[in-house]
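Chain X:
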Amino acid sequence: MTQQELAEAAELSLRSIQRIEAGQLNVLMTTVVRLRNALGCSVDEILP
């Protein structure tokens, strides 16, 4: 999945996805849930 596809699936901006991946953005739990839903994984797999 590309960053653009993830952004669209999670209803986030591409820039937000880029900043999350670079560790430049504090992520709200609602954003984590959106990412989890878009990726089809558990929250534990996303959070360190």
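Chain Y:
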Amino acid sequence: MAKMEESKTWTIMIYMAGDNDLSEEFVWSLMEMFKVGAAKPLAVFVEFDSCSRGDRKRYQIPLPKKDLSSSFDGLMDSGRLVANLQGQENDPELTEQGNKLKNFITASIKQYEAAHHLLILAGHGGGAISKVLLKDRHPVSFLTLDELQNVLRKTVSQTGKTMDIIGLDSCVMNALEVQCELQQQATYFVASQGLEPRTGWPLFRVLEALNQQPQLEPAALAQFLVQTHTAYYANYEVAGLSTDLAACDVTRIQPLLQAVKSLAALLNVKLLEEEGKRKHPHTDALIQAHWKAQSYKFEDYVDLWDFCDLLEQGDGDAEIKSACRKVKRLIGGTNASAGKTPNQTNGKSPLVLQSCYSGASFQHSHGVSIYFPWVKESEEFQLYQELDFAKQTAWGDFLNTALRVTEREPRPSRNPQAKPRPAVENPMDSPLIADFNSRLVEPASMGEGFKMPKVKNSPTVFFRDECGE
């Protein structure tokens, strides 16, 4: 039962999926939070799933220490545990990982009555259709975006509370597809479009600030998370590290979804009109914008604002220019002259509250990305078409057309009798790549292994080289 007499301004829940190569980094983060402590108006709970088999602990960050000269050794075993995690209720509709998360969120919310709630999910990530979100090793498990949505729905049903802020301290999770799936579960959403450093968010810095300003409102805290992250990792630019982080108001997402739907439909028509013709200016402009746009995760995602900006510049069609401008206005993005995200754009509130970066690699990030791969892979595409975003915007239909009309022709054979052979649809199935990935201690780049390098949109057939005859 909630301790009604001890109401809080914020209940902060941090779920650390550390049953993998991130375990040691999470211990460091926990230690730093213990050193800072949480002021009395705050309730900060951390569930740490470590790489020790079955070793899962739940902590409450204690009050700040008055004597900072005392030792902090042994903090992880010093009685800060707040729950026995054995024998908890399991929902048969959820996986083991889903039940862990649901039980943690539900128990934390019920502990205190609080004005606001912040949920931070820390662990591996890889975009809207990846199979590594909050990935565990023992046993190997992960959350799909659909199950995460289901977990959050169930916690709302059991507690009556939605999140003021959901933060994903994971790689490549600030995609419009992800926000669309979670729009009913929170007001604000904070995540990275690109790669998140292994050390994750500097949560101890956030606690330091909240200890001084525990009455901080959700919008201000969402933006503060972005500012703190960027300032902290700016120190690492000298080591070549690049980061990005953005805060979005997902209550403003519907107009943007409609604008993306209109853009997708328009592009679909324009590409089909010039298919097979000798001149294809819209297709050329699309390829150029796609090529130049800020990209993420093996170039499977692009920054939506940046892509639309480049397409607006490169395509002479008035309708396409207008559609691109509308998408940009509704995103908000970064004001190039001021270096800041505006709070208002032509009288309308944009999706992005604040978007910041450090280093060179993600400097054209404006706060939200979209799935736009260079080649269609059937398994991924089937998963994508099942997302709420794909159903609402028909972006998947546009991708079908775009990837077909931009597919490169096969290299011709000098033998006029030669017949084209079908390419292996997923080169990841090749024995060479499978063997390479099996040797990795931790699969590369967010746990998804090595991807075969190839032509941007390679032909689906080929003629055997005469050397192989």
